[in-house]
Automatic annotation (TrEMBL):
It comes from the Bacteria. The chain crosses the membrane at residues 22-44, 51-76, 96-115, 122-139, 169-187, 220-239, 259-280, 292-312. InterPro entries: ABC_transp_permease, LivM-like. Keywords: Cell membrane, Membrane, Transmembrane, Transmembrane helix. One of its GO terms (molecular function) is branched-chain amino acid transmembrane transporter activity. It holds the Pfam family BPD_transp_2. It is found in: Cell membrane. It is a multi-pass membrane protein. Its main location: membrane. GO terms for cellular component: plasma membrane. This is ABC transporter permease. It comes from Bradyrhizobium centrolobii.
Length: 324
């Protein structure tokens, strides 16, 4: 009896990879909490956090499910449009606007997933791209989106009727809290039995099927969860930028999130966060170069692919024998 109890306690202790990830998460959280007193521009960090959550949602799909979506921006943009319209036209509360935006992107994820999951590989990717372009042209012509002008001057309001989002510091901590909550949900998902099945499907889907798993169901759930979290990033982005535009729906945003994930480290927990901050920093501080920003980004991407095959975080984790 004593032996069983001792073994149970020993087995309940966090493994080395989990300890590495927990320590990194604590350090990351501490750094982000200290941003307002560090002198960094809060708008830049908030924008990077929204981009990071979007990239983490995308990484859940490709890094752990092995599904490459070329149209993931449609969920980011859909939530943004619905949230912005609800706040400005329907004058709903911020929390309800966020819920409506996430619900819309999740519903779109269900429809897109049901169509796309039937195919694999490049066919899956092409279907997601085609559907995202279809939605893009719908939003281009839809009256409520205001076409190329987008929805401007979105009111920020008060969250739960007492949290004033017009205060930049308050808004920053709200965005940070949402990011950490979304990040933790993704982390728990990939380290749950659901996540283990996803990884087995990524590695060898026929074998997972032979073991009795309904792989299409797991892939569809991962797709829907990823779409909902991407929508959460899009809804929060509305409060930061106070607008919703076609930029967040266009295929270039889907390409950008692929770049972010590969740059940070595909299939790593913290890779998309690092990649998002690097891309956001380049967009912010290299803006004076105009269209040359894209050339610089492409050059950096090529260099990173050639020198960091596992991504920046992947190479660091491999070098120090850590799990990140």
């Amino acid at each position: 009896m004593t032996t069983l109890t001792t073994n149970s306690i020993a087995n309940s202790k966090p493994t080395a990879p989990v300890r590495d990830e927990i320590r990194t998460f604590i350090i990351l959280t501490a750094l982000l909490v200290a941003v307002p007193i560090s002198g960094l521009y809060p708008f830049f960090v908030m924008n990077a956090l929204c981009l990071a959550l979007f990239a983490c949602a995308f990484n859940l799909l490709i890094g752990y499910g092995g599904l490459l979506s070329f149209g993931h921006a449609v969920f980011l943009g859909t939530a943004g449009y619905i949230t912005a319209h609800a706040l400005k036209v329907w004058t709903v509360s911020p929390e309800l606007g966020i819920v409506l935006g996430v619900a819309a992107s999740t519903a779109l994820g269900v429809v897109t997933g049901l169509v796309a999951i039937r195919r694999q590989g490049i066919y899956f990717s092409m279907i997601t791209l085609a559907l995202s372009q279809l939605v893009y042209f719908i939003y281009l012509e839809a009256p409520f989106t205001h076409g190329e002008d987008g929805i401007q001057g979105v009111p920020q309001g008060k969250l739960f009727a007492f949290i004033d989002l017009t205060n930049p510091i308050v808004l920053y901590y709200v965005v940070l809290a949402v990011f950490l909550a979304g990040f933790f949900l993704i982390y728990r998902s990939i380290n749950s039995p659901f996540g283990e099945v996803l990884k087995s499907i990524r590695e060898n889907e026929p074998r997972a099927i032979s073991l009795g798993y309904k792989t299409d169901h797991y892939k569809l759930l991962a797709f829907i969860l990823s779409a909902g979290l991407a929508g959460l990033a899009g809804a929060m982005k509305v409060f930061v930028a106070q607008n919703a535009s076609l930029t967040d729906v266009y295929w270039t945003m889907s390409g950008e999130v692929v770049l972010i994930t590969l740059l940070g480290g595909l299939g790593t927990v913290f890779g998309p966060v690092v990649g998002a901050f690097i891309i956001a920093a380049m967009q912010e501080y290299l803006a004076s170069f105009g269209q040359w920003v894209l050339v610089i980004q492409g050059t950096i991407f090529v260099i990173c692919v050639l020198t960091f095959r596992r991504g920046i975080v992947g190479e660091v984790a491999h070098y120090f024998k850590m799990s990140l």
